[in-house]
User: Fold this.
Amino acid sequence: MAIALVTGASRGIGRATALQLAQEGYRVAVNYHTHAQAAQDVVEQIVRAGGEAFAIQADIADESQVVQMFARIDTEAQPLVALVNNAGILFTQSRVEALNAQRINQVLTTNVTGTFLCCREAVKRMALHQYGAIVNVSSAAARLGSAGEYVDYAASKGAVDTLTTGLAQEVAAQGIRVNSVRPGFIYTDMHASGGEAGRVDRIKSQLPMQRGGQPEEVAQAIVWLLSDKASYVTGSFIDLAGGK
Assistant:
């Protein structure tokens, strides 16, 4: 059994991914920032189903906490072979002209710098045994721009896309694969953070598939990309946005 770390795993896509990875036989490190009870609930659900998991607190925007999180994983007997960079933030819908530097920098620090730091620490460990896979959770917003809503968030995910492409090329010869999923219009709590909990229902009629997506649908793509079934896939993107 090997370890898969899922950041932001207490809810939404992260939670669904953690549960599915446990079913595939990984020991899951369930990272969370503030929702300790929700993360423990994920761990308990995995254990009840016969899997193995443990919760680990860290704010990925803080370099020292990221380093400590990976040091904690190092104390386990099993190697880290999979990383899902799922943790991310957004703020209330806003036009660019109303944004301030504090908000922009907060989004970029978590969504971009935090993802870089987790990739850095994972690669150091995966390179030791020349094996591993990373999936970055980007967003359809990186392609669509999120005009009038979250251009700062969209830009942060555009940076994650570039990271995915560049890092995949850097580490391919070390047996490490790096890919991305770009979900869009998924039923998660993140929309409430943007001030519109019902956003998916408002726009689903504009989507070719005429419906929003479920976290489990995104998780299935992530789990596939981490698996040996995707052994010749790196630097690739799977869009999960109902055809948008």
In short: The chain has one domain: 3-240. The chain has a mean pLDDT of 96. The longest helix spans residues 101-126.
